[in-house]
Structure formats: structure tokens, C-alpha cells
Write the C-alpha cells for this entry.
Amino acid sequence: MAALKPSRRIHYLFTVNPTATLQLGLWVALSIAMMTVDHRYRALDGLRDMLATALYPVHYLARLPIDLQGWLSENLAGRAALLDENAQLREKQVFLNTQLQKLTTLEAENRRLRSLLESAVNTPERVLIAELLSVDFDPYRHHILLNRGRRHGVHVGQPALDQQGVIGQIIRTDPLTATAILITDPNHALPIQINRTGVRTLALGTGNFQELELPHIPNNEDVKVGDLLVTSGMGGRFPRGYPVGTVAKVEFDPGSPFAHIVARPVAQLDRIREVLLLENELDATRLDPPTPP
Amino acid sequence: MTAVRPTGGWIIASSFLLAFLATSIPLSGWPGRLWPDWVAMVLIYWCLALPYRIGIGTGWVVGLLVDVGRGALLGQHALAFATLAYLTVQTHRRIRVLPPWRQAISVLAFLLLKQFLVFWISGVIGYPPRDGWYLAPAVGGMIGWPLLFVILRDARRHFQVT
């Protein structure tokens, strides 16, 4: 370049590739076509499956540092700390076992009463454990990628929980991975019930991991801060009675017919590592229209 | 221009892979909000350094893989990355002669446009950004650019990627 005359040098700096604009046009057109097809018709799932399977090792690699950190902290923990944790766990187990004894009798009683009432028996659910592979980078969309897919029997609509409560549901499955939408995603609504009073409403995602919105609760309704929200089983996706969140804020606005209620999810949605996927046996029958007698 | 035999493709591929891994590190608080899209920055670098080799097509393919990796709409990042590559390739002669910290200003402009495109498409399909923070990774990218530039330049020279 040093050999060029100054005027030529300026010209050199502003030289552009004449076909680049055409190329860009073609690629942009292709992108728009693909996005339309993907969004409207879901017709590109084959291509997505293929690429997702090819990318699986990358996701695995991305998880490695987190796994390594967990492994290190487990293996380098002091003996005293481990003994301490062990004692704590033992204590907890004794406590849980006593509760479990109560539960089995209660469950038997419940089943007997339900059969007396001729209502559907809550069959025990099968559970599949999946691990988190990655979180959507888009901060306004709460999607997570799990390391179990169609191969393992995951299907769209399956409820996802963690130890504390409901976290979301599966919205897309690939052969080896599945995507779940969290209950705090702005496009998610979960049918819930306030455990204390039985009031039914929806829990809408807000895009904030700590907040759910409860719309359509009248100003005169009995809602208190700290009330537990559980799934109501309406809509047929989520089984009844799983904890969702607790009411965090109740504001009465005299100008509006409904109270402004904000709840906080019980599951720590920004700290998920393992996810339980429920296999609800009642799903299929519940979604069918009722047969006339 | 003499024909150059392309070498060191694996360096380019692994730089994209590492960038993808770096971008997926989950961070919280303001570092998480400023954490840049390293894949886009690596793409800008290779478009500056080897514009005859890495261009709009590569950008599009990388974007498509990012779409699959992130579970985004197929074509969302592909479109943004193709545009990013186009801008960089068209202006690489002007940007390449600047010192890294001045290149960072152009990088900021490109990354802002890329963030805008990605979130514009998100908005169209019903996920509009809720505040202005979605542009913050572009600022993070500007801050990180000189470092990334030096690393990739040294890697390119050491492994003689052409």
C-alpha cells in the first residue's frame, strides 16, 4: 500500500466489494423466509433437530466448567464440613420419613374417599430428571435448554418442576435436548389457585425471575402477603396442587376494579440446575373432550 | 491480489467455538448485562483480517448455528450476523488502519445495530425488550474489543492464518 500515491490511497480506503450488497440481499431474504417458515409453520424442525444434535457436544462443553466447579467443591470440601452436612441430611431424612408415614395413610384414605365420590384418582406420576444445558441469552425470554430429549421420552407440554415448585413446561423437543419455557417468561400464563382461600386465577410471567403477576383478582378479595399459590390443574397441563409461589405484594387501587398483586416464585428460577419432568398419566384423558353419558 | 492458499481454518473455527462458550457463561448483575456477544466480535475480527475469506456467507452460517444454540428463531441471528459481516467487509480497509481503541468505536456502532436487529425481530414475534439494557452488551463489546483484537491478532500471526 505504501507504493500508492496519496489520491490512490484514499481511493483504496473507500473501495467496496460491488457484489457484497447483492449477497447481503440474498442472505437477508433467505433469513426472512426461514424465520417466517419457522415461526408460522414450524416446518424447519427437521433442520433444527439436525443442527441441534450436531451442536450437542458444544453445549456439553459449555457445561463443563460448571460441572467441574461442582466436582471440585465436593471433592475439596473438608472432612468436618462433609460430616456436618451428613448429619444435617440424616436429621432431615428422619424428619421426612415421619412425614412420609403420615402421607401414605393419608394417600390411602384420600384414594378411598375419592373412589367413594367416584372422582378421578390421582395416579402417581413418573418423573424424569433433566439437567440444565444452557439458558437463553435473550434476557427478556426465559427459555432453558435441558439435556433430555425425544430419545428419553420428553414431549411437548410436559410440566417441569424443581425441588421447591413449578418452574415451567416443555415447548420444544429435539432428539437429545428439550427447551422449556419458565413461568416467568412474559408469554407464559399458569392457572393457579390461592391455597388458603381457593381463589382461582392465572400467574402471568413478567420477564423478571422474581415476579409473577396475578390479574383479575377483585379489590375486595381476601389475599394476603405470604399466601401460597398452587397449580389449580385447570387447562390440563399441570397436575393440581404443586406450589408455584407466594404472594409478595398486594396493592389496592381504588380507581381500578382489580387489585395489583405480585407473587414471587418458590422455585429459584435463576439458579436452576436440575429439573424434574413430570409424566402425568392423566394428561391424555384430561385433554379429551368429555364423552356424553 | 495474489491467490492465497487458505490455512488455519481450525483456528477460525475454534475461535468461534470459544467465543460461543464465553458468551454462554451465565453471569448475574451488571457484568451479566454488559457481557458482550463474543461471537459477533470474533466475526468482526475475521471480517477485518481476512475479508476475502470470511464474509457475509460465513456470518450467516455462524448466525444460524447461534440461533440453534440459543433456541432462537431460525434466521434471527443469521440475518443480524450477515448484516454485521457486510458492514465490516465493506469498511474493513478504513477500520483496519486504526489502532484497536479507535476501531472499538466502529465496533460499538456495528454491535449496536446487531443488537437492534436481533431485538427488533424478537419484538415482532412478541418478545419486545422491556428496557434499554438490551443495548448494553454492545458497550461491553466496545470495552472488550482491544483485548479480543490483540488476542486474535497474535493467534493469527502465530498460526499464520491466511
Q: What stands out?
A: The longest strand of chain A covers residues 126-135. Confidence is low (pLDDT under 50) at residues 283-293 of chain A. The longest helix of chain A spans residues 79-117.
